[in-house]
Amino acid sequence: MDKKRHTLRCAVYALIVKKHKILLSLRKNTGWMDGRYGLPAGHLEKDEELKEALVREVKEEVLLKIDPSNLTLCHVMHRNEKKTDNFEYMDFFFRLEYWEGEPKNGEPDKSENLEWFDLDSLPDNVVPNVKAGIDYYKNKIYFSEFS
């Protein structure tokens, strides 16, 4: 029987945290959630490991050099947003506390600006699954389902 298997997309997210503040990026010109704040993040590429993907994305988006051993998995989210993008995702949120350099906008064509926000006082216009992931991180909830 030739039955096509169900597949999921994978995305990785960096919670860059310093003194109870988190670094967020205001999205623009991406075609998805523009005008909302998100985390440095991206899709897993073929044959790429999760931490390897996040090291790549953080370097591209906020110009920070990071050691994969400084990434701590803090939340996994099964996201099924059929209404908005018709895909299912496994989202992996990693906390990052140590890095080299100062965050700078490495993708000004996709990000309006970078800004530090208090973890307890996020703006209203945060990407919904990112907001949920940050809340779960703060509450030490390690797995969720989001739709």
CATH 4th-level superfamily: Nucleoside Triphosphate Pyrophosphohydrolase
**Any idea what the CATH architecture is?**
Alpha-Beta Complex
Low-confidence stretches: none
Helix content: 10-25%
Number of helices: 2
Query: What is the CATH topology?
Result: Nucleoside Triphosphate Pyrophosphohydrolase
- Principal-axes shape call: globular
Number of separate domains: 1
- Evaluate the radius of gyration: 15 Å
Classify the beta-strand content into a percent band: 35-45%
What is the tally of beta strands? Answer: 8
**Distance N terminus to C terminus?**
32 Å
Order of helices and strands: EEEEHEEEHE
Provide a descriptive summary of the structure in words.
By secondary structure, the protein is an alpha+beta fold. The protein has a single domain (9-146), classed as Nucleoside Triphosphate Pyrophosphohydrolase. It has helices at 50-62, 128-138, and strands at residues 9-18, 21-27, 37-38, 41-43, 71-80, 88-96, 111-118, 143-146. Strands 1, 2, 3, 4, 5, 6, 7 and 8 form an eight-stranded mixed sheet that branches. It is globular.
